[in-house]
Structure to design on (332 residues):
């Protein structure tokens, strides 16, 4: 991918300081634990509606009916995506992570699929930008239009790139974690019962295991700025280095029994949200709030929900994705 095209999609994710820090600061206040707490009730309410919509069915395809819906709603509300554009936005965001998958590519090719996704997201964002210039609202796009970095407003190009990053980062990751977790808790019913016996006290540490287990972002590639030796391998400045988060999360020198899903473990360090550097996931608190709400609703309204059959995986070197997963439960 040419740099110009990647820049249209990555925003702060691929910026270096000092600009990275300044632009990240424009939105970071919206993602703090305190701010997430303020919207947690709305997220919980939305999670309730999502589960209410399926609870009399007895069987659904879980990814579309449940996992995808809460992240899409949450990020759309925060950014300010109108309801009639949300489906289009989520499909374009899916294309951005599906460029290695034959089903997603269909008759096209990876570069075209990715480019089409970027173009669709930029188009949707520009419409929101134009609308907010006319009539500001209480959302992120309005805030970004007003914001200044070094005395200058962000350009529309920059706002659109931010939009693409938030739509992709905010949708797929939490969606995949939800589906992987349903599968894991189906395979480990004793752990599910243990969780439900004291949900509020146990869900926090359990979520750390959900994301470690799912490791929805498998890899990122960075460019080394300094010489560094790691495991006997010398990395020189300018070397391109790929980090395998899913491997780090199964590092037997750090995690006890790393290949076992165990929500009763005292959570140790994991790198599912990154390694704790300046690019550490901005949405981690938001993701956790969504996971807390959706599993509370699922196990309250349809407690015997379970994944059935084999999932349809996404073919990707980037996202540990499940495209489809059937689930069953006693209808209410
Ligand atoms: C389980 C869910 C999630 C996982 C596993 C995840 C994972 C990650 C990872 C691995 C990074 C890169 C960290 C680094 O390079 O050090 C990242 C960055 C980022 N994530 Fe998340 N993410 C999740 C949910 C979200 C959500 C809900 C949002 C909401 C908008 C979000 C927004 C971002 C942004 C904006 C960045 C770039 C931060 C920067 O470059 O300064 N993520 N995420």
């Amino acid at each position: 991918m040419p740099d110009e095209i990647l820049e249209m999609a990555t925003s702060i994710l691929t910026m270096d300081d000092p600009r990275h820090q300044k632009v990240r600061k424009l939105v970071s206040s919206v993602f703090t634990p305190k701010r997430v707490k303020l919207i947690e009730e709305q997220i919980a309410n939305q999670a309730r509606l999502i589960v209410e919509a399926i609870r009399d069915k007895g069987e659904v395809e879980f990814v579309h009916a449940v996992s995808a819906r809460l992240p899409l709603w949450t990020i759309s509300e925060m950014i300010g995506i109108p309801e009639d554009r949300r489906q289009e936005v989520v499909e374009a965001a899916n294309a951005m992570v599906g460029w290695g998958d034959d089903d997603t590519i269909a008759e096209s090719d990876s570069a075209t699929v990715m480019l089409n996704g970027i173009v669709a997201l930029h188009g949707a964002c520009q419409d929101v930008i134009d609308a907010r210039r006319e009539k500001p609202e209480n959302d992120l796009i309005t805030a970004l239009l007003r914001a200044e970095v070094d005395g200058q407003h962000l350009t529309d190009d920059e706002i659109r790139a931010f939009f693409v990053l938030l739509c992709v980062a905010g949708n797929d990751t939490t969606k995949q974690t939800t589906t992987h977790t349903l599968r894991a808790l189906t395979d480990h019913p004793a752990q599910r019962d243990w969780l439900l016996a004291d949900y509020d006290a146990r869900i926090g540490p359990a979520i750390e295991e959900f994301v470690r287990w799912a490791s929805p972002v498998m890899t990122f590639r960075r460019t080394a700025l300094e010489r560094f030796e790691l495991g006997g391998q010398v990395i020189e400045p300018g070397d391109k280095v790929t980090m395998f988060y899913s491997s780090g999360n199964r590092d037997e020198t750090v995690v006890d029994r790393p290949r076992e899903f165990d929500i009763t473990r005292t959570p140790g360090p994991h790198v599912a949200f990154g390694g704790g550097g300046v690019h550490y996931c901005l949405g981690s608190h938001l993701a956790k709030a969504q996971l807390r709400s959706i599993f509370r609703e699922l196990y309250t309204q349809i407690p015997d929900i379970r994944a059935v059959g084999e999932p349809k995986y996404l073919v990707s070197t980037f996202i540990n994705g499940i495209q489809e997963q059937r689930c069953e439960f006693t209808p209410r």
